[in-house]
Structure to design on (426 residues):
DNA sequence: AAAAACCTCACCCGATTGTGGTATATATCA
DNA sequence: TGATATATACCACAATCGGGTGAGGTTTTT
């Protein structure tokens, strides 16, 4: 198995050095660098090209969340593992939205650190239950809007809406479904009434947001 | 602190009874029932109204995923903790989409079981790193499409698009951003050129699909 | 058999939008 | 200082769309 290359960004000197020695002292892991801030973030990453970045959330200058964004923008393959002293859900949640792959508390044991890094490297996402829950809830809301209002759309109406959200005009839709322009318009009128909207944009917006059709 | 009421659905008799005694034997926890299948699921839940349901994924008759759907439909407040023998990502992932709040492997220690139940009850979502990663990836894709094509939209153009996807007409947008109808139209022309579209619906569709703005 | 949904098509009118111009002011950049 | 990007604004014409109305047909339900 290849060596897992890790780069550390952590302002606390003691922890930074401890982690450096921990990682270098663990079989299968190498620490490609340990820095107190993110000022030369991209340059340092370009030089070392690590597999995993261990990133402190609270840092002077560029903070951890901004750093994650930058990293994922320029090196999408690098996995970022956040670490933090506090169990600050919001911050961690933002970090995850920015592209982080997991996070651990600084109170984690050395063995736990290694475990988490390994997990991230192997495609996992270590995180505590409360963060996981927040992600889950937003996720579940995005996947299935639960009992989305039933607008009682007929099959034909749904078919037309599907075409509409593709950006087609009434004329093109008529063509696509083998019908007349006027028929499509009639259906649209009925759709508008059912969705309580009064323009095609509004309809498309509603359909895409509420995952109708 | 209140007693945490747990109901178990698990076809393996040995495990079911072990869990029953484990939970009843742990301070702060009560087992409100332990059943080998989900045939009378809703009736049993209605009777016991547990805080947490421990649900096996693989079961004869109604399987765990269907069961979760039913539970969340009728008792959205009940937290469902899935358990499974295999580390079957897809199944667990489906369970989570169906509304489960976490999951554990059956190889988990008794202490781990109790810990997970407590975590779920307290609003957490225990899960392994690999599941968390799958959720995260889908989640991040829904939140930020990573490096979506950059259309070089100006701030004003983005602002107008934001209004447009709300279903507003050009006139209303002009009003909202304190500008003229004609100005909005000019911006729209530029937007169309940049997005390579030629109708407002197409623009809205593209914006919502690619998470621009 | 009557009623209710659903799909179909057409015409009118006024409002909105698409397209192609032109033009000024500002700010930033080279 | 000239070039570029951005925001602003207006005009005209053709095309499309929203709203209203009416009216055939089928299928399913009652």
């Amino acid at each position: 198995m290849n060596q897992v290359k890790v780069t550390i960004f952590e302002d606390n000197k003691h922890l930074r050095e401890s982690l450096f020695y921990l990682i270098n002292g663990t079989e299968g892991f190498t620490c490609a660098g340990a820095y107190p801030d993110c000022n030369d973030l991209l340059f340092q990453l370009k030089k070392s090209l690590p597999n995993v970045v261990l990133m402190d959330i609270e840092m002077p200058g560029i903070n951890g969340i901004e750093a994650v964004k930058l990293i994922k923008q320029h090196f999408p393959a690098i996995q970022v593992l956040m670490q933090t002293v506090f169990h600050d859900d919001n911050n961690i949640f933002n970090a995850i939205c920015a592209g982080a792959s997991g996070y651990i508390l600084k109170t984690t044991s050395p063995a736990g650190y290694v475990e988490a890094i390994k997990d991230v490297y192997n495609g996992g996402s270590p995180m505590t239950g409360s963060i996981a829950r927040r992600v889950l809830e937003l996720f579940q809301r995005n996947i299935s809007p639960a009992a989305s209002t039933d607008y009682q759309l007929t099959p034909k109406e749904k078919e037309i809406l599907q075409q509409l959200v593709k950006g087609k005009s009434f004329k093109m839709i008529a063509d696509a479904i083998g019908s007349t322009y006027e028929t499509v318009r009639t259906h649209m009128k009925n759709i508008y009434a059912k969705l309580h909207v009064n323009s095609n944009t509004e309809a498309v917006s509603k359909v895409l947001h509420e995952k109708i059709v």
User: Anything to note?
Assistant: The radius of gyration of chain B is 25 Å. Chain B touches chain A at residues 96-97, 99, 101-102, 119-120, 122-130, 132-133, 135-136, 138-140, 142-144, 146-147, 164-169, 197, 199-206, 208-209 (CB under 8 Å).
